[in-house]
Amino acid sequence: MFEQYLSAGPLGNETGLPIDQPHADSSLLDAYSNAVVSAAEKVSPSVAKIEVTQTAGRARNGEPRERHGGGSGFVFTPDGLVLTNSHVVHDASRIELSLPDGRRFPAHLIGDDPATDLAVVRIDAPNLSAVTLGDSQSLRVGQLAIAIGNPYGFQYTVTAGVVSALGRSLRSYSGRMIDDVIQTDASLNPGNSGGPLVSSAGRVIGVNTATIMGAQGLCFAIGINTAKFVASKLLQQGRIRRAYIGVEAQTVPLHRRIVRFYDLPRETGVIVLASENGSPAQKAGLREGDVIVAFRGQAVAGVDDLHRLLTEAEVGMRSFLTVLRGTERLELQVIPAESRE
Fold first, then answer.
1. pLDDT of residue 214
2. Which residue in the list 86, 193, 319, 339 is annotated as catalytic?
């Protein structure tokens, strides 16, 4: 009696199609899978697991304590230059990299920039596979984004999502703002830091750097164009030179009457809380309570604006700060020095 069911076609299939008939959207799923697989295969051989040892004071018996951590990175030149996050390798006493083919190498730090959370390390190894760097300026919201790294120490994990937003700002662990950050929903976890964010074409478009704890799906990567600039400076100088004037400051709102009276373009400024002894700010005559509203004629609405304007080009250059002192507007001459960060 079971023969009638066996010969009647698939149960519950009113279309009469064979049970192994592909779904209408299977080709789309295959295209998506193929894009992820292809990109991962191109980039994965270049992705390194980074293990770091840092000195963490001394024990009671006087022996030095060590702290261990790690993250990810990727080879971006055939001669062994590796890009990663500054917070992964900063103050490391020993750095080791392992590659997908099982090889392990000691690494040394070329330079790191806490302000952009980027670092370059070098390994001496033959037959390295380098990634192809893309152009983060050409990204579009909604395009495929693939993150490769070592979350929680699990080597060479791939996650995929889309570019959720562009032009975000993110505060680095040094306190400065990183501009033009890529937001993605490709899952990141501790250990992914420093790994590549990759396009469907297998080109690196960003350096994975952070997640917002408790906010599922909010992950961030530093645009590869920023990384190219920072890496070139680190290779030339070992650091990024920035100017500073030596003030403790915070962003404050300005009284509307002051804004209207002086026709200020912004309704906030930077109030000076203190200035370092011997700093450019002290030499310029800045006082506690002064409010900086412009630097070299460019409006300063907050501390982050001031940071952005104090570039390498300003070191040693005579400039002018526009300051509100009470109800008086002053132009103070200042010569920014090189930051000691």
1. 58
2. 193
- Does the active-site annotation cover 117? yes
Q: Answer whether 78's CB lies under 8 Å from 89's CB.
A: no
Catalytic residue (one of 86, 112, 113, 117):
117
* DSSP secondary structure of 270-302: EEEEEE-TT-HHHHHT--TT-EEEEETTEE--S
26 is catalytic: no
Which of 8 and 196 is assigned the larger pLDDT?
Answer: 196
Please write the tens of the pLDDT for every residue from 46-70. Answer: 999 999 998 877 777 777 788 888 8
Catalytic member of 86, 87, 113, 164: 87
35 contact partners, CB below 8 Å, separation of at least 6? 144, 200
Round to whole Å and give the CA distance between 263 and 210: 40
Q: How far, in Å, CA of 138 to CA of 207, rounded?
A: 16
Read off the pTM: 0.77
Active site residue 44: no
> Are the C-beta atoms of 116 and 164 separated by less than 8 Å?
no
Q: Per residue in 129-145, pLDDT tens? A: 999 999 998 999 999 99
Degrees, nearest 5: CA angle 307-309-312: 90
